[in-house]
Here is the input.
Amino acid sequence: MSGEHPVPPECVRLAAALREVRDRTGLSLAALGGRTPFSKSSWERYLNGKKLAPRQAVEALCALADEPPGRLLALWELAEQAWSRRAAPAEAPVGPPVGEPPGPWRPWVRSRRAWLVSGAVLAVAVAAALLLLTGGRHASGGSRPGALAASSPYPQSFEPGCKGEECEGADPAQMGCGAEGMVVTLLKRKASGGQRVEIRYGAKCGAVWVRTMGLHVGDRVELSLPGADTKEVRAAGQRDTEVYLSTAMTVTKDPAKARVCVRPASGAGVECFTAPAHGESV
Here is the structure.
């Protein structure tokens, strides 16, 4: 997004948000290029603000990071509008535009045209801002199932970074096991303290993990399966209470035996949930 014109602040914010999500995946530029339809050099330009990222690139990065796309897509809408205005050539009319009446009617026509354009831009900006505030989620707090699939025109043909035993103890986001078309949500629950937990199974990876949000500082979430080591994630600081966290993966051929427990830092009672046999959503 560089050039002779200054970079709009909306584009700067989008690039910063993309870098933040990419950092959470732990993937290199080469790995991003290998797991998405966009090249390593393209990702370098998108993340450093040299070029406006396409909507599909934003969606692909969110899928790899196991991140609901609503917030970044709202930023993208605002950045795309700013980028279009920046790229538009300056107009230097010599006379009244074709079809515009002469004389005293001309200022009224120009004012009306400017009002209509401004109104349209404002309406789009308000819609994007509302999406940014809700994070692209339903009022119930969960992300809309299949939302990314409905808006992604490209095929998800990339392979995860691990399969089977290679995935034991690995990070699901770094391995790409939570990408679109590769994950099943077996269970979604909300604990009495507001903590939200999901048991997720990556079919290609052959592993299960827990994704959680809404933790309080010090809260712990544990994943257990018979005969496997317990995996745990803890909210160590304020930042961890504002984003999704995931446990490491446990390899299994029977994900229905997975069990998640929430251990509040407040000392309140432990709450545990077990995945149903056939899952709840995809």
